[in-house]
């Protein structure tokens, strides 16, 4: 799910939280958290394309565990509207990504990703690493306008940095 979808859904969640708790700050936090969970992709892109570790998948903020911990704290230890907002917005973001991308059901558990040493080949076998940059124009705003420029100028840079491992060649022949 791209930033536009997350902004729309997080706005709805934020307005609902504001309505339920009466706290506009909680509504704002819900909107912020719902959208900003995706800043963790910047770390992944840096590792993949600058450090040339294309099989690394960290997605440090994308984890069901954080939502579960938030719900447990809210239910049993301490309630605060801001914590409620952050927890619901985070849960909404991960759920939306999960149903949009339909990965292995366990992909968004960071404990499992840690166990598999953040190796995309074990976390989501068969996933094509090229997808992460090929999809940019579909994920970001006004993609149609700048897609031709992107395909011409930027995509070749990513493609050139990709050292194709033997196991990826199978993928490539599927295209
Ligand atoms: Zn996301």
What does this protein structure show overall?
The chain is mostly helical and 175 residues long. The chain has 2 domains: 3-38 and 56-126, no CATH class; 128-175, no CATH class. 71% of the residues lie in helices and 0% in strands. It has 11 helices and no strands. The chain has helices at 3-21, 24-36, 40-50, 64-77, 81-101, 110-115, 120-123, 131-134, 136-139, 143-161, 166-174. Zinc ion binds next to helix 5.
Task: Record keyword descriptors for this entry.
175 residues; 11 helices; single chain; binds zinc ion; 2 domains; mainly alpha; 71% helix; disordered C terminus
Provide the fold topology.
Layout: H1 3-21, H2 24-36, H3 40-50, H4 64-77, H5 81-101, H6 110-115, H7 120-123, H8 131-134, H9 136-139, H10 143-161, H11 166-174
Helix pairs in contact: 1-2, 1-5, 2-5, 4-5
Strand tally is: 0
Largest sheet: none
Distance between the termini: 23 Å
- Uncertain regions spanning at least 5 consecutive residues: 169-175
- Summed over residues and divided by their number, the pLDDT gives a mean of 88
Order of helices and strands: HHHHHHHHHHH
Shape designation = globular
Helicity, as a percent range: over 70%
What is this entry, summarized?
With 175 residues, the chain is mainly alpha-helical.
């Amino acid at each position: 799910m791209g930033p536009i979808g997350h902004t729309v859904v997080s706005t709805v969640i934020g307005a609902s939280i504001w309505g339920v708790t009466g706290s506009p700050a909680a509504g704002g936090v819900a909107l912020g958290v719902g959208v900003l969970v995706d800043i963790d992709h910047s770390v992944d892109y840096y590792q993949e394309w600058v450090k040339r570790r294309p099989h690394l998948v960290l997605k440090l903020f994308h984890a069901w565990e954080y939502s579960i911990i938030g719900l447990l704290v809210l239910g049993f230890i301490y309630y605060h509207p801001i914590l409620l907002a952050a927890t619901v917005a985070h849960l909404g973001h991960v759920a939306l990504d999960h149903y949009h991308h339909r990965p292995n059901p366990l992909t968004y558990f960071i404990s499992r990703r840690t166990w598999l040493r953040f190796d995309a080949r074990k976390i989501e076998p068969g996933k094509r690493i090229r997808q992460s940059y090929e999809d940019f124009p579909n994920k970001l705003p006004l993609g149609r306008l700048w897609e031709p420029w992107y395909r011409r100028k930027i995509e070749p840079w990513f493609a050139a940095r990709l050292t194709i491992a033997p196991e990826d060649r199978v993928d490539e022949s599927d295209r």
